Amino acid sequence: MIPVLGLLAGLAVGLFLDPSVPVWLQPYLPIAVIAALDAVFGAIRAILDGIFNDKVFVVSFLSNVVVAAFIVFLGDQLGVGSQLSTGVVVVLGVRIFSNVASIRRHLFKA
Amino acid sequence: MTLLTTMMERPLDAGYQEAADRRVAAGLPGATSTRTVLVVVLAILTGFLFAVAAQSLRPKPTAAAAVKKELVTRIEALQKHGTDQEAKVAALGKQVRDYEALALQQSGGTDLTSTIKDLEVQAGAVPLTGPGLTLTLDDAASTDAGADAGSRPSSGFQEGRVTSGDLQIIVNGLWGAGAEAISINGHRLSSTAAIRFAGQAIIVDFRPLSRPYVITALGDSQGMQQLFEPSFAGLYLSQLTDEYKIRSIMAGSDSLTVPGDSAVRLEVAEPVGPPVGSTAPGATTLQQGTTAPKRSAGAGVAPTGTGTSTTRSPSDTPSGTTDSGTGSPASPTSQENPS
Q1: Looking at beta carbons, which residues of chain A come within 8 Å of B8?
Q2: Which residues in chain B have Cβ-Cβ distances shorter than 8 Å to A53?
Q3: Which pLDDT score is estimated for B34?
Q4: In angstroms, rounded to a whole number, what is the distance separating the alpha carbons of residues B299 and B289?
Q5: B43, B45, B279, B284: least CB-packed within 10 angstroms?
């Protein structure tokens, strides 16, 4: 419950402050969001599986975001930024889907 | 394939299982609490990230859109300002006329009130109420797509649209059919009013109109309808309806109001000699007005000058001097009317 409140607090702060994102950071933002979503759903599944570990969560979250952003950066430098972004989105999207499916099985037994 | 299999079947980080295994081996419960500082901080960070991303990635209003919005606001504000000022002009004009009447009375000269009233009516300076016709014109239904009321296409001529030429012909036809006063969308057509176009917009007396176009013509509604329909303008209108599906509705009414033309202003003033004062009828003054050489100075732009004035100059004549250089109620657009 407390992490959920924290999430809402973060959302509220972000909406309220409305910080301006520097232009050089903007291409990585969508990918970072997808990576963060993947880490969050992984953590929820781990909680339901009974094997949650806060350090693993933090490390996986940060590494996800950083690696996703790095891949996009690399792609941009190589001139295949949009293709690599698509790849990252596909991989993370598949992971999110399977994690959510697992969460669904835990919650609804279906 | 290994990659795909791993991705599909074990989407969870293997790290979770390993950490749990280590903790169980150390005699601790497999899962840690979700209420640790780390988790809460990261949750806040995640929420923040989502909010920032959502806000910064939402399509932003471009600079052009901002400018457009600003312009729209300014146009609306100025239009409102203009409307307010028009109302003020109308109120002040009425006040001026009242004072003029009072001054005339007090000066003890010939009673010109009825002449002035008559001329004001003819010049379109005062609102009129009476029986008449309303003719509502609207673009064909086929042009409705993508055109809200008041909007206009950026380019191109669509034949289903009412043009200024259509309005001119119809208004001329109405004058010809005996209309005594005409207004379009609440703009009185005085003798100097012109129906023109700018781009796709129809402009009456320099004010743009938006569809539908409601033409109010005061006069004998039965008689006007009978004269109008077989006339050239009436046939033209029925052609517009048949060929281009331009919508038109004509309805008679017992009580219609046309506003006064707020743009009427003094163009020429000259003293009324005693003979005019004694032979008061408006027709005489009118003729004097149209033949007076001075008229051309002020009314050079207008086909028929309009101006209703009452100037008081005690030194000039015993009475308040009055002149109304007034055209016939027919507007310039009516001069080539067919009937």
Answers
A1: 94, 98
A2: 15-16, 19-20, 23, 31-32
A3: 74
A4: 11
A5: B279
Residue B316 tokens read as 């000039």
Please tell me which residue of chain A has the smallest CA distance to B35. A2
Which residue segment(s) compose the domain that B40 sits in?
Answer: 2-57
Q: Is residue A11 part of a domain?
A: no
Query: Which token pair is A80?
Result: 């295949």
> Which among B11, B44, B56 has the least Cβ separation from residue A95?
B11
Identify the closest residue of chain B to A61 by CA–CA distance. B42
Tell me what the mean pLDDT of segment B168-194 comes to.
Answer: 85
Residue B6 lies in a domain: yes
For residue B251, what is the enclosing H or E element?
A: strand B247-258
pLDDT digits (tens, 9 = 90+) for B200-251: 788 887 778 877 888 888 888 888 888 888 888 888 888 888 888 888 888 8
With CB atoms and an 8 Å threshold, state whether A12 touches B47: yes
pLDDT of residue B306: 38
Contact B143, B211 (CB under 8 A): no
Q: Can you tell me the distance from the alpha carbon of A15 to that of B48, in angstroms, rounded to the nearest whole number?
A: 8
Do the domain assignments include residue A2? no
End-to-end Cα spacing for chain A: 24
- Give the number of domains in chain A: 1
Instruction: Give pLDDT, residue A49.
Output: 84
- The residue of chain A nearest to residue B17, with distances taken between CA atoms, is A51
The answer to whether residue A14 sits within a structural domain is no
Residue A63 near residue A9 (C-beta atoms within 8 A): no
Residue B11 included in any domain: yes
Task: Find chain A residues with C-beta within 8 A of B57's C-beta.
Answer: 26, 29-30
In a domain, residue A49? The reply is: yes
Distances (CA, A) of B330 to B232, B327, B334, B337: 17, 8, 6, 10
Residue in chain A lying closest to B24 (CA): A51
Question: Is A10 within 8 Å of B45 when comparing Cβ atoms?
Answer: yes
Structure token digits, residue A5: 């409140």
**Residue B34 falls inside a structural domain:** yes
* Gap between the terminal Cα atoms of chain B: 90
Give the A:B interface size as CB pairs under 8 Å.
Answer: 147
Indicate the pairing of strand B321-326 with strand B201-204.
unpaired
Does any domain span residue B276? Answer: no
Contacts of A58 in chain B (CB under 8 A): 38-39, 42
CA distance B95 to B30: 92
Q: What is the pLDDT of residues B74-106, one digit of tens each?
A: 999 998 998 899 889 888 888 988 888 888 878
What 3-state DSSP class applies to B157? coil
Which residues span the domain enclosing A73?
A: 22-108
